[in-house]
Write a structure and sequence with these properties.
The chain has two domains: 16-54 and 298-404, Aspartate Aminotransferase, domain 1 (Alpha-Beta Complex); 71-296, Aspartate Aminotransferase, domain 2 (3-Layer(aba) Sandwich). It is 42% helix and 13% strand. The chain has helices at residues 16-20, 25-38, 57-68, 81-95, 109-121, 136-144, 164-168, 193-205, 262-276, 281-293, 298-317, 338-344, 349-360, 387-404; strands at 44-45, 104-108, 127-132, 148-153, 175-181, 209-213, 238-243, 255-259, 332-333, 362-363, 365-366, 379-382. Strand 5 (175-181), helix 8 and strand 6 (209-213) form a beta-alpha-beta unit. Helix 5 (109-121) packs parallel to helix 6, helix 5 crosses helix 9 (262-276) and helix 11 runs parallel beside helix 14. The protein binds pyridoxal-5'-phosphate (PLP).
């Protein structure tokens, strides 16, 4: 007889970390959405952050060709040398330095880059600074390493930009480094060149590592992205992370890359060997082809995404009680729904997100998933769908709010 679900199993007791970790909020909502879709309900999703366009066909053909040619074996733990070379050339051109292939590691998505770099740098008890709100993997990986995540609240009045002054107030003798995501998920904010320079100076002065997750570097609608790879001595303390998921629409192919001084790459190689042996070889041919093709195909996508950002912003403003910062980057907006909570008598955004899903058939991610403090009162909207769907979705929320508020 199966004892599935028997919580008093004499054999299994979970680790503290397994007990502590929760699934990523945006991913957790996917299964609820599937459930509604299976029932034939027309759900509009502003949930998970995944572009709706396909990768260039030539890139996918390159994967098929690689499979036909027998690239089905183990390879180096830090990826195909040819892809490392291409990434080094591409980023050298993009950010104006001479990056060597030996300073590049290919990872299983940018997420593995986050995990491996944290494992390479964080000891138990080390404090690691991070933006609040921020991508939940930062808190999770630092916790797995038994480090201490220390959150730096981003202020709505600063457009959710991380400020060097705010970093300084959180530094203690135990601070080992800082994880920065720019352009920023979930707010869509973008650091100025001056912000990046000042943050870099503070980190150097206090001997902190910077893990810089720049996965949204190409989704910029106003202003210009500055990379930490553009800082003069980045090799001293910067670990740059990015990948093919967003710009190239390759979320499911799981190809990310890391750039850092050679010693870091060597440590990451050892960690990757014992974690997943190697990133899958055939899929990396999509990356090689993509970088050969260059970013021309992305120009039209960027124009379309800017229209979507504008439509999302304008439609959110029509919902009574909602305020929102018009983030110049990524494909997310992070509106403040505190007034809506008050008007509808709903306790928190987790409950609000569930009500919107079941009653208005709209998927949004509660701000508390990023990962907990400053996200309260906020919802994250991922605008990876056509303008008419964005408008229809926001209108459904507006009607739902009107029908459920005492301000009618
Ligand atoms: C800030 C940030 N970093 C990393 C990732 C993960 O990217 P990948 O698909 O390359 O693992 C995401 C995905 O949403 C993200 O938002």
């Amino acid at each position: 007889m199966s004892n599935e679900g028997n919580s008093s199993s004499p054999v299994l007791s979970f680790s503290d970390i397994a007990e502590e970790l929760k699934p990523e909020a945006a991913v957790a909502f996917l299964s609820l959405v599937d459930e509604l879709k299976r029932k034939g309900i027309n759900v509009i999703s502003f949930g998970i952050g995944q572009p709706d366009f396909l990768p260039p066909k030539e890139a996918l053909d390159a994967v098929k060709k690689a499979l036909d040619e027998g690239y089905t074996k183990y390879i180096s733990s830090i990826g195909l040398y040819e892809l490392r070379q291409k990434v080094a050339e591409y980023l050298s051109q993009k950010y104006g330095d001479e990056i060597k292939p030996e300073e590049v590691a290919i990872t299983v998505g940018t997420k593995a880059g986050i995990f491996l770099s944290v494992m390479a740098l964080v000891n138990p008890g080390d404090e690691v600074l991070m933006q609040d709100p921020s991508f939940p993997a930062y808190e999770a990986t630092v916790t797995i390493a038994r480090g201490k995540p220390v959150f730096i609240p981003l202020k709505e009045e600063n457009g959710y930009r991380l400020k060097a002054e705010d970093i300084i107030t959180k530094i203690t003798p135990k601070t080992k480094g800082i994880i920065i995501n720019d352009p920023h998920n979930p707010s869509g904010s973008l650091l100025s060149e001056d912000d990046v320079k000042r943050i870099y100076e503070v980190a150097k002065e206090h001997k902190l590592f910077i893990i810089s997750d720049e996965i949204y570097e190409d989704f910029v609608y106003e202003g210009k992205h500055t990379s930490f790879l553009q800082m003069p001595d980045w090799r001293d303390n910067v670990i740059y992370l990015s990948g093919f998921s967003k710009t190239w629409g390759m979320t499911g192919l799981r190809i990310g890359y890391m750039v850092a001084r050679r010693e870091v790459i060597e440590k990451v190689e050892a960690l990757a060997t014992h974690t997943y042996t190697c990133p899958p070889a055939p899929l990396q041919f999509a990356g090689i082809k993509a970088l050969e093709l260059g970013l021309d195909f992305f120009k039209d996508i960027l124009k379309e995404y800017k229209k979507r950002r504008d439509a999302m912003y304008n439609s959110l403003l029509k919902i009574p009680g909602v305020s929102v910062v018009k983030g110049p980057g990524t494909f997310y907006l992070f509106p403040n729904f505190r007034e809506v909570l008050k008007a509808t008598g709903i306790n928190n955004v987790d409950e609000l997100a569930k009500r919107l899903l079941y009653e208005a058939h709209i998927v949004v991610t509660p701000g508390t998933g990023f990962p907990k403090y400053e996200g309260e009162g906020h919802l994250r909207f991922s605008y990876v769908l056509p303008v008419d769907k964005i408008e229809e979705g926001a209108e459904r929320i507006r009607e739902w709010v009107l029908n459920n508020s005492n301000r009618k």
